Amino acid sequence: MEQLKIRALYTLSETIAAELFEGKEYPWEVLPDISAFIIKLGNSLPEDIYEKRGENVWVAKSAKVFPSAYINGPAIIDEEAEVRHCAFIRGNAIVGKGAVVGNSTELKNVVLFNKVQVPHYNYVGDSILGYRAHMGAGSITSNVKSDKTLVEVKAEGGQIATGLKKFGAMLGDEVEIGCNSVLNPGTVIGKKASVYPTSSVRGYVPGGCIYKEKGQIVPRESR
């Protein structure tokens, strides 16, 4: 299951939350710890770079936050990030350097690495999005199973019990998600993989591959 581990999916130098992942093997193990980590980190951030806006909300002075955006703590909006019109950050969210949270996008219990884009009508909950990951317009993470049972991650070699009722998706660095796709609970997508628009994805998509439809995952052609 090496392909599912933190070191296979993420460049930890590309997030202010690198310490959150220390001592953990799989990325979903950080989900229960995001809230407490934000509060601890936020209280240590330099006041010349970040300002505190309300209870447990820290926003970099270089970030652009539209007046219509709503940010509930705990939350950290890092340098040069952009939180656009009517974005809804429900709490327990880290928005990385240069990341974009777009029109009517909703975040909850997430870590967005640097340069992530969730720019149009996205829902991202209980998920980790790696460096330069991009979700097309209308694509969402579904974070609770319909029968409310605990989420398992399905991959070659078997299933991994997570012990989590809420678990959206783990997107590796530079993943591309096509418009209006649904990433079902427990989805893990490897580095530089792509998902076709309007897909319903479940389980593991290997890095460097293209998910076309269920049962059809092909290697990306080298250029």
Topology:
Elements: H1 6-9, H2 34-42, E1 50-52, E2 57-60, E3 64-65, E4 70-71, E5 75-77, E6 82-83, E7 88-89, E8 93-95, E9 100-103, E10 106-112, E11 117-120, E12 123-129, E13 134-135, E14 140-141, E15 151-155, E16 158-164, E17 169-171, E18 176-177, E19 182-183, E20 187-189, E21 194-195, E22 200-201, E23 204-205, E24 209-213, E25 216-219
General description of the model:
The protein has 223 residues and is mostly beta strands. The protein has helices spanning 6-9, 34-42; strands spanning 50-52, 57-60, 64-65, 70-71, 75-77, 82-83, 88-89, 93-95, 100-103, 106-112, 117-120, 123-129, 134-135, 140-141, 151-155, 158-164, 169-171, 176-177, 182-183, 187-189, 194-195, 200-201, 204-205, 209-213, 216-219. It is built from two helices and 25 strands. Helices cover 6% and strands 38% of the residues. A hairpin with a 4-residue loop joins strand 1 and strand 2 (57-60). Strands 1, 2, 4, 5, 7, 8, 10, 12, 17, 20 and 23 form an eleven-stranded mixed sheet that branches. It has a five-stranded mixed sheet with strand order 13-18-21-24-25, with no helix packed on it.
